[in-house]
Amino acid sequence: MTEIREADFVDSIAEALQFISCYHPPDFIRGLAAAYDREESSSAKQAIGQILVNSRMCALGRRPICQDTGMANVFIKLGMGARMVSERSMQDLVDEAVRRAWRASDNPLRASVVHDPLFGRVNTGDNTPAMVSVELVAGSDVAVDVSAKGGGSENKTKFAVLEPSESIADWVVRTVETLGAGWCPPGVLGIGVGGSVDKAMAMAKESLNEPLDMLELKRRGPSSKTEEVRLEIFERVNALGIGAQGLGGITTVLDVKLRSFPTHAASLPVALIPNCAATRHIHFELDGSGPAQFDVPNLSDWPDIVIEQSRIGTRRVDLDQLDDAEVQSWRPGETLLLSGTLFTGRDAAHKRMVETLRAGSALPVDLRGRAIYYVGPVSPVEGEIIGPAGPTTATRMDRFVEEILAGTGLKVMIGKAERGPAAIESIARHRAAYLIAVGGAAYLVSKAVRAAEVVAYADLGMEAIYRLQVEDMPVMVAVDSTGTSVHDTGPALWRRT
């Protein structure tokens, strides 16, 4: 019987989590580079280019690809001929690995897990507990898939029980069309069909760990009914014109994964889980000979792409001199380079600010004529001003927009993905604007930050309000002061169905 030492198991998972925080899988980079080469939309091509540049920077600097370093998902296949030499539970062992990975001094990761989902929602501080799945299988080895799943894509998970005669492809395409851009496309769709409710979800999640092979599938053609469905969904979703970051373009998904399992004759359970542009996962096996080893990807895997910050047509904006004329001159799809003072604030900070306004009290920061960035950054390491600091999904702040704009005089909001109708109405009413930074380019964005300090709500941790000084931070106008949204006009232009 193969004996797996506790230390080898924990060390391997901890190192895997650190590894995937910094390195995209090589097959994902190849798929993204191919999408960059064939992209026809200039806005989407620019976004994909930023994601690729950010990915290479993270590989070189060994820093997180995204500020949302995700929830740890660990799928374990324990061979019946293997024995874990430990008296602790599998959950305890994995949690120790997660705790070690998230608290690593040379590359600290952002703790995003809250302990009580119903009431206090207090951050656990070390990203535990992990989401652990254990399956007993034939063999004498232990196979492990480790992934880190960000909240933006996880929040777009969908499930339905269709009638057995319904089309899975039709449901997936209709559903993806309603997801918006909060899952940070281009990415991968994981689909689980059959089994029970929980089985379908597990299959969808686990399928996201499979290697990307859509380019090969398109080249050789489908060889099974399952591959036919995968290819159909791939083509139809990309024909929606959603594009990178929802800006409109020819590539929304890089691959579609599909797993199925026998189910009840009256049921057709279907789970859909998207993976974002910060797709992070790795597979390893333990045979009792020691911990897993991970090979650093070759830098030649990344294409040579240079993001020109001084390209013609890019406008530089002084955030310390914002006025109505400046904001109202911006147009959807226009690229801006921001310099000056920028405040941060996301869900918890917005909730607290609105409660303060309702109580008739003054806020701890003056937002009149200012810009706020929806971000929860990673803690910096030595030599950094701030850790990776990419945008979070803006729609979660929609419920606060009217009261914040009316009560503070805020002029500009920066996040990722689209805004809802009510938020857009408020933006137009107050002649404000909403800008987007590229989700999946967190390390690249952080390099535009010249100074950072917490100025309010320090107890909220990564959700505290920071005052940043930025220089040439790249953003795009998503909603202008009239309420016109690039997330409406862009996809409509590129839709092919």
List the helices and strands and how they pair.
Layout: E1 2-5, H1 6-22, H2 26-38, H3 42-61, E2 71-79, E3 82-85, H4 90-102, E4 131-137, E5 142-149, H5 151-154, E6 158-162, H6 168-178, E7 187-194, H7 197-207, H8 214-220, H9 225-238, E8 253-261, E9 268-275, E10 281-286, E11 315-318, H10 324-328, E12 335-344, H11 347-358, E13 371-373, H12 401-408, E14 412-415, H13 421-429, E15 433-436, H14 442-446, E16 449-456, E17 465-479, H15 486-494
Parallel strand pairs: 1-3, 2-4, 7-8, 11-12, 12-13, 13-14, 14-15
Antiparallel strand pairs: 2-5, 5-10, 6-9, 7-9, 12-17, 15-17, 16-17
Verbal overview:
With 497 residues, this protein is α/β, with parallel strands linked by helices. It folds into 3 domains: 1-150 and 281-306, no CATH class; 151-277, 2-Layer Sandwich (60s Ribosomal Protein L30, Chain: A); 315-494, fumarase (Alpha-Beta Barrel), CATH 3.20.130.10. 32% of the residues lie in helices and 23% in strands. The chain contains 15 helices and 17 strands. It has helices at 6-22, 26-38, 42-61, 90-102, 151-154, 168-178, 197-207, 214-220, 225-238, 324-328, 347-358, 401-408, 421-429, 442-446, 486-494; strands at residues 2-5, 71-79, 82-85, 131-137, 142-149, 158-162, 187-194, 253-261, 268-275, 281-286, 315-318, 335-344, 371-373, 412-415, 433-436, 449-456, 465-479. The protein has a 5-stranded mixed beta barrel. Strands 4-2-5-10 form a 4-stranded mixed β-sheet. α10 links the parallel β11 (315-318) and β12 (335-344). α6 (168-178) packs parallel to α9. The chain is globular and about 70 Å long. The N and C termini lie far apart (57 Å). 49% of the residues are buried. The mean pLDDT is 96.
